[in-house]
Amino acid sequence: MTIAGVVLAGGKSSRYGKPKMFEIYQGKYFYEHSLDALKANGLSPLIIATNHELKCLFQRRDVQYVYEHEQHTYQGPLYALCHVMLQEPKAAWFFVLSSDVPFVTPKFVSEMLAYTSYDGIEAVVPIQDGRRQPLFALYHRRALKEMQQLIAQGERKIGMLFDRINVLNPAFPKEEKVFININTKQDWLRHQ
Ligand SMILES: Nc1nc2c(ncn2[C@@H]2O[C@H](COP(=O)(O)OP(=O)(O)OP(=O)(O)O)[C@@H](O)[C@H]2O)c(=O)[nH]1
Fold it and tell me: Cofactor(s) for this protein (predicted)?
């Protein structure tokens, strides 16, 4: 079974003020922490989903790049994931991570991967302290049709998908740091 590793790295970073995926933590860009957590678990292909504006800033050569069409940039994670699924027809599962989550670990990815063996599910979306974490999650290709329908209706929120597909929601403890995401410079000052 092919499980692709996908790093979503084509957002506006408007709250951060500059492309936040290129901030550095422990000698690596933020986006590389996501990429390497997926890579350490042998996921292949590894995909960075981004756009033409940001493309020249990425340096990694051990990945495939999927670019959103110029007229479809900044449509959000639901659109970006759908686009990746269409570009990568051989993968069954897609492990999606944000590119602003520097504390994500290979161990977390490994724990999540174990849930793909459950029957009849289309997504594995972790929950922490009652909050779903859709950008630390696994999506099966079987969810693609529902995703396309939502997009055709003008919907951009990935959360809208969860009423329409079978989702497994493993719970993670409150103190687990992997889910910290950096939206503002204040967030980064607080957490680094
Ligand atoms: N490829 C791609 N990734 C996206 C898109 N929108 C958001 N992302 C990524 O999804 C993750 C979460 O994005 P957010 O922080 O909610 O949004 P953002 O646009 O990056 O930042 P804000 O403008 O501050 O909301 C980040 O890793 C983004 O890079 C998109 O349209 N395409």
Answer: Mg(2+)
4 is in an annotated binding site: no
The pTM score is 0.98
Alpha carbon nearest to ligand 1 atom 1, residue: 10
Superfamily of domain 3-191: Spore Coat Polysaccharide Biosynthesis Protein SpsA; Chain A (3.90.550.10)
In which element (H, E) is residue 98 found?
Answer: strand 93-98
For ligand 1, say whether the CB of 134 is within 6 Å of any of its atoms: no
- 9 in a known ligand binding site: yes
135 lines ligand 1 (CB under 6 A): yes
**CA nearest to 49, candidates 23, 77, 72, 30:** 77
Q: Is residue 62 pLDDT above 90, yes or no?
A: yes
DSSP calls for 115-152: GGGSTT-SEE--EETTEE-TTEEEEEGGGHHHHHHHHH
Domain ranges within the chain, ordered by starting residue: 3-191
Please work out whether the CB of residue 52 comes within 6 Å of at least one atom of ligand 1. Answer: no
Give residue-wise pLDDT tens across range 71-93: 889 999 999 999 999 999 999 99
